[in-house]
Amino acid sequence: MQFVSNALKKAMKKKLIIFSSVTIALISAGMAIFFLFVRQEPVYIAVAAPLSGARRAEGEAMLRGISLYLNEANQKGGIDGRRIRLRSFNDKNRPRDAGIVASEIAENKDILIVLGHFSSEASITAGRFYRKNGIPAITASATANPVTSGNDWYFRITSDNELQGSFIAGYISKSLNKNSASIIFTDDSYGTTLARSFEKTARDLSLNIERKWKFQPEMSDELKRISAELRAMEYPGIIFMAVHGDHAPEIISSLKFPGADYSIIGPDSFATPSFIGGFNKYPQEQTKPGYFTDGIYAVSPFLMDIANEKAHTFRQKFIRKYKEEPSWVAACYYDAAMLAVEAIRMSGVHGKENIRRDRREIRGFMASMKTMDDAVKGVTGYIYFDKNGDMKSPFSSVVFYQDNKLFPAYSQYQMGHSVGNDALRKVLDSEIIMLKDKTMNRTDVVYTGIDVGEISNLNVRQGTYTADFQVWFRYKGGVNVADIKFMNAVGSVRLEHPVVNKSKDNITVQSYHVKADFKNNFDFHAYPFDDQDMRISFRHASHTRDKLIYIPGTPDGKVTNLNPLSGWNIKNMRFYQDIITTASTPGSRDFSAPQNDIHYSQFNAAIRIQRKGYDVILRNFLPVLLMALALHMVYFIPYEQYGIRVWVIMFSLAANSFCHHRLLSDIETAYWSITEYAIFTVYGLLCLSVIMSIIIFSLSRGEKIVKIKQINRAGKILHFLIVLTAATGTWLWVRSLRF
């Protein structure tokens, strides 16, 4: 007895030592992970934005764009394992408050860089504090030249007013074909720098300036005077309003009266939420959206319809998180956050004790980004800087308002480099705009739509169908729109003679009839709960994306005029533009030569169809459910009747194999569908039944009744848990795929 007791004590002591050792090891590992990764000091970035007041919408857009990128960066491990934290400061879009905020940031000993401010006036005031205290700052919205001029701590990733004002004058002259203009500008750094640049370029282009007014918002009589003098003019030309977005609605509403038909163009402030929101208080706008804004042109630093491929990914993420389309403010500050994180990562961070050194190195890294090779590729383009800290080759798009919404103008201009030998012809044909040392090349925007009349001969297994439709184009100038390539057509499809061909004011509308077979790679992951897209996709045969971009000309919606498809419900129709990339070895027959990526604008029409009824679902899942039930009943068969168990298992195996073969004949995929997962679940249940039956048969020979009951009970529980897990997983998968 004493021997047993000592042996027991030794065993317990050994277990205690092992348990203690494992516990100490786990605690040590946990503490190591905690101190190595969790306890690392975070990296702090500040954002200074108008979080209250008239420009609150822009401040919220700034926060959303920045937060979206920082969340992505943190999910990827932050900066060398250190999380990135954002500190928000409200400058109320007022210079005085911006100075207070900048002073508070300067006193903070852990903020490495500032994103903001939104307005030029606020940025100029805050910039003095940042320069004095050595804090790098990035603005994606303050466009007045003094923001960065003379301040080597401030960087700008949007066009400055010198370029913006000059570009607007060039666009008015070369694209809108106007020969005279009037100017209304705000009496501050934003308005004066825009007006000065516009006027200088207008003189160079022989664009006559009819009148010029200085607008001071705090003086109520100013608006009445400007409105009265404009009404008295016989022809003021197109009116360029170099004013802030929250001031513009008051001016524009005063000019809207019976018989008035002024052409108006504005800067980037006209493409902000506060501009369009400023008209909501007027009854005319409430009755008819777009009453004041229809036909107004504006410049936007970012436009999703003609943005790069990276921007499309950004848009999807933004909509998924915020349930709305991103504005140019959100997109530009997403890029500002990207640049800030990259600058901190490349500079290295030494901690609070070296905050001044860290800030200097971050500023130095951004100042060294002088060429395309040094650039950070953002959603708005390649970010690198000139000697003033301004973004080289900034993107500017021209948009116009219709029904309170922004649409791309028919002609866009993007920064280019080589002009070629026929520069004069290109200038005369408005193919390029030359502004001092910069050349801007024209990109034609073609509004496109597809009106489907009939879908027939749908073969889901082969992924083919016949589509009968009208494809139409609305464009400006002499674009050869008929020269297109259908990317998913089974055979060659050519547009021959237009059914409709009409022009008015240099805007042409053409429509072509097409009936052809198309092929699509259907997605059967959710089969038989699947929705499918029947796509019609095409690109221009020769014009790359820098020459021509397709824009959907009709909104998404329900399809009401299509014939019904057997076994399917037609849900809706979507139109979208994306980018298709091909590789090319220009001028070389050597296929091993370095390849260049060529980008085309691709237009897509997608008809969403959904399986109708429950017959396909029952045909695929009812046998599976019956087999699962039959295999569960195996555990209720007395162990003595071993032959019946074997018969049920063999029958279930044969039935499951038949269902599997029928599924593979219905759909041919390189991946598993939900139905196939269900079938393999049954295979798993079969294996469980076989294993349990063999164990029970072995135990029955020794008449171990208690253990047989335990094994049987375990089989029932395991079977139920497997079926429950599979059913829950199927439901969640279907839900994720369809919703």
Structure description:
It is a single chain. This protein is α/β, with parallel strands linked by helices and 739 residues long. The protein folds into five domains: 1-39; 43-159 and 312-383, 3-Layer(aba) Sandwich (Rossmann fold), CATH 3.40.50.2300; 161-298, Response regulator (Rossmann fold, 3-Layer(aba) Sandwich), CATH 3.40.50.2300; 444-584 and 596-611, Neurotransmitter-gated ion-channel ligand-binding domain (Acetylcholine Binding Protein, Chain: A, Distorted Sandwich); 615-738, Methane Monooxygenase Hydroxylase, Chain G, domain 1 (Up-down Bundle), CATH 1.20.58. Strands 7-6-8-9-10-13-14 form a seven-stranded mixed sheet, sandwiched between helices. Strands 15, 16, 17, 18, 20, 21 and 23 form a seven-stranded mixed sheet that branches. The radius of gyration is 34 Å and the shape is globular.
Secondary structure blueprint with pairings:
Elements: H1 2-38, E1 43-49, H2 56-75, E2 84-90, H3 95-107, E3 111-116, H4 120-133, E4 137-139, E5 154-156, H5 161-174, E6 180-186, H6 189-204, E7 208-215, H7 220-232, E8 238-242, H8 248-255, E9 264-266, H9 273-277, H10 283-287, E10 297-300, H11 309-322, H12 328-347, H13 355-367, E11 376-378, E12 381-383, E13 397-402, E14 405-408, E15 411-416, H14 423-428, E16 432-435, E17 438-459, E18 464-476, E19 484-486, E20 500-504, E21 507-519, E22 531-540, E23 548-552, E24 568-584, E25 596-611, H15 615-633, H16 642-666, H17 674-701, H18 705-738
Parallel strand pairs: 1-2, 1-3, 3-4, 4-5, 6-7, 6-8, 8-9, 9-10, 17-23
Antiparallel strand pairs: 10-13, 11-12, 13-14, 15-17, 16-17, 17-18, 18-21, 19-22, 20-21, 22-25, 24-25
